[in-house]
Amino acid sequence: MKTDHHVILRVVAKPLIPIISLFALYVHFHGDYSPGGGFQAGVIIAVAVILYSLIFGITPAMKAVPPWFARSLSALGFIIFGAVGVWALMMGGNYLDYDALFNEEPGGHYGQHYGILFVELGVLFAVAGSMLSIFYAFAGRVTEIKDEDW
Amino acid sequence: MIDLILQLAPAWAEAHAPALIIVLPLLAGPISAFLPGSGRIAWIMTMVVTALCTLLSIILLAQVRSVEGGAVISYAMGGWAPPYGIEFRIDALNVLVLMLVSFIAFLTSIFGWPTIRAEINEEKRAMFFGAFQVCFMGLLGVAATGDAFNLFVFLELSSIATYVLVALGSGRDRRALPAAINYLLMGTIGASFYVVGVGFLYAATGTLNMADLAIQLQDTSGNRAVQVGFAFILVGLGLKAAMFPLHQWLPNAYTYSPSFVTAFLAATATKVAIYALVRFLFSVFSLEFIFEGASLALILTPMGIAAMLACSFQAIFQTDVRRTLAYSSVAQVGYMLLGISLGTAAGVSAGMFHLVNHALMKGALFMAVAGVVLTYQGTRIHDFAGLGRSAPWTMTAFAIAALSLIGVPLTAGFQSKFALVSALLASGWWWAALIVVFSSVLAVVYMGRILQAVFFKPPNNPQKRQKEAPMLLLGPLWVLALANLWIGINGNFVVGLANDAAQALFIGGVR
């Protein structure tokens, strides 16, 4: 008899992970019409990776999404957020003034729309990266639980 | 001078200085965390950023002082007009804090490289500088913002970066880790008290903008929610500022963190929290509230005096130089709180003046200690024996700053203690003036123990080869030591700034 007790878990989790990631993007891009936004989307993306590491173990997860990548992601998110503000400064507005982003006529709303999306994208990266870094920092400390220990 | 600065500064820098001073370290922090190499490039970037922030703060100072009595610069973040949007509001009070923080950060980042190379692992150095810049950014943000909730965000940003910085001292001494976790718990409690207090104020007034809060609060003096909010904010910020019974996190954090971090934190972190406290006491709330007058008289005054006495005594019995200086820091916070709790313009001005001077002297003292750690690897008083002969330049600067801490004439400490005593006497608090003098005598004892070991005891280990701290460290150290002497001999510039700051609170200010 095979000793793999988790075959159902693995079969179910594998197709779920891409769907979870996709749902994260939905939560992000639909964030201006419904509850959600960058923070929630970032958490959901991190959850996808955390689920993967719970099912398949921390080592394969660290191979798929390395810790240095998670750290860089959070810093990149920080930089995206700040850079949108600098973009607005360059276009002659105040810091983070989305109305100035595209030099629109008064009454145009593209700036507000895309500005918040970019900023929230930065939040998404930062949150996903930080969540994963924290998870790796804790999970990486203990030894793997062997199959026999269940 | 002011006209010259305003002419030289480019127009974009003048218009956007309140935002740029935050944005520069905000962006440079994460970038420098990923710079390759042994951290040298990240260090150079840190120096450039802190230098630019110092320039921006000078531009802001020129703008504020270009109008008689002090202008107020308001910057609407994201183009949303206050009170709805987040406002950055620079007046004579916080421009002083901005200048102090960025100047100290510049000096410490120059001297930082040799000590960091000795104390931090190579692969962590770039991240270390990233965390330092985020901490620096948070402190500037607390000083610059005019929004009560935004202040909480910046306070937490700087604090979280600070916990990381303190924990990185574990390379030298493992006790840095419990110190950091202790600081984390206490700091988080302080921050949550603050945010609960802001929540109560928001519930009572429906606004978070400080200037608007001040107006809305005028006719709510009987409101319980406002009183509870005030109490929460006082305790929360008091914890961050190391007000007397809430200072337990400070001695360990200062003793075990990397030398560079200690020098920076001792000169800036508690100072910014005291600024925030002053901002809430005198411009969001005002002395017209009965409960505020009572809390000044019944809480701040006794706590300030208790800090001056108890922590000075504790400092006397320490065997570690950094611990002595840490307890002395809590005692000096007591002087500032005593000045503030007078509730008069002269008292607040003396408090702010002492705040600036204390940053300069503690910065110099901890830098000199960092030099000793670098060359002799010891921080006990015993390790300092005979250093006056083997490292005269480092120790002369140390002695100047120590005399300034005691309050010897011709030093900065004398000027601000004199201002404090005058303010106390003007209010008729002669007994408090006596306590200030007595506490200074205690300072003579605890600094005297160190100075005696340094200059009159034979060296422990005369064979030690490296004697003096490197030039990179001596430069900023002597800048601070000479600043102490300069303010002591001709303090008009800083006294003027502190007076303007107090005037901004009591006359024009936010109202």
UniProtKB/TrEMBL annotation, chain A:
InterPro entries for this protein: CPA3_antiporter_subunitB, MnhB
Localization, UniProt: Cell membrane
Alphabetized NCBIfam families for the sequence: PRK12508.1
Keyword terms of this UniProt record: Cell membrane, Membrane, Transmembrane, Transmembrane helix
Name the record gives this protein: Cation:proton antiporter
Family recorded in the similarity comment: Belongs to the CPA3 antiporters (TC 2.A.63) subunit B family.
Residue intervals of the Na+/H+ antiporter MnhB subunit-related protein domain: 8-132
Upper taxonomic lineage: Bacteria, Pseudomonadati, Pseudomonadota, Alphaproteobacteria, Hyphomonadales
Transmembrane regions: 7-27, 39-61, 73-96, 116-138
Keyword ATP-binding: no
Record's bilayer topology term: Multi-pass membrane protein
UniProtKB/TrEMBL annotation, chain B:
Entry superkingdom: Bacteria
Keyword annotations from UniProtKB, A to Z: Cell membrane, Membrane, Transmembrane, Transmembrane helix
Transmembrane segments: 12-35, 41-62, 92-114, 126-145, 151-171, 183-205, 225-246, 258-282, 294-317, 329-353, 359-378, 390-408, 428-448, 469-489
Membrane topology note: Multi-pass membrane protein
Annotated localization: Cell membrane; Membrane
InterPro entries, per database record: CPA3_Na-H_Antiporter_D, ND/Mrp_TM
NADH:quinone oxidoreductase/Mrp antiporter transmembrane domain sequence ranges: 147-442
Protein family per UniProt: Belongs to the CPA3 antiporters (TC 2.A.63) subunit D family.
Listed name of the protein: Cation:proton antiporter
Upper lineage: Bacteria, Pseudomonadati, Pseudomonadota, Alphaproteobacteria, Hyphomonadales
